Amino acid sequence: MGSRVDTPESDLKPVVEALHRFRAAIGQHLMAILLDLNLSLPQLRALKVIHDLGQASGRQLARELGVSPASVVPLCDRLQEQGYVERVRDTEDRRICWFRLTQAGTELMQGLSAIGRSRIVPALARLPPTDRAFLVRVLDTLTAVIAEEGSVPGSPPHARSAR
């Protein structure tokens, strides 16, 4: 990617607005589901981190979420009460407590992923093959540029961590 191209913000506005419309179209359905499940976005983010890592210590989870370790406790207490997360003591170091998804938590994450796929796959299938190939190139390039630039000053720590 290399060099930065200075593009007037007015030229980027239609792209940013299109991305917002896309996120809203996908997110609207997800928000309704989260409300039905009585899950907040921070809880969903915590579930995703634990799902992606397989298990996470309180410190890992706090770092990935960009919050203090103390704020992870009530967040995970609620997830544990809802049956999505369990606490497991480390077998070698009893000071470490791991958060893991329960069967219900795993099923929830798989279900949410399937819902997303069920909405996007039919929409992608309606695009001509050349548009899909172009979309892949654009998204891959955008992802690489974002990864290359690292974090924006003031962004939460999880935006800076390697995944």
Secondary structure topology:
Layout: H1 9-37, H2 41-53, E1 56-57, H3 58-65, H4 69-81, E2 85-89, E3 97-101, H5 103-125, H6 129-149
Antiparallel strand pairs: 1-3, 2-3
How would you characterize this protein structure?
With 163 residues, this protein is mostly helical. It has a single domain, classed as Winged helix-like DNA-binding domain superfamily/Winged helix DNA-binding domain (Arc Repressor Mutant, subunit A). It is built from six helices and three strands; from the N terminus they run ααβααββαα. Strands 1-3-2 form a three-stranded antiparallel β-sheet. α2 (41-53) crosses α4 (69-81). It is globular. The two termini are 20 Å apart. The model is unreliable at 152-163 (pLDDT under 50).
Helix share, percent: 55-70%
CATH architectural label: Orthogonal Bundle
The total strand number stands at: 3
Overall number of domains = 1
For the largest beta-sheet, the strand count, sense and barrel status come to: 3 strands, antiparallel
- Low-confidence runs (pLDDT<50, min 5 residues)? 152-163
- Rounded mean pLDDT is 86
Classify the secondary structure makeup into a structural class. mainly alpha
User: What is the radius of gyration computed over CA atoms, rounded to a whole number of angstroms?
Assistant: 19 Å
Q: What is the CATH third-level topology name?
A: Arc Repressor Mutant, subunit A
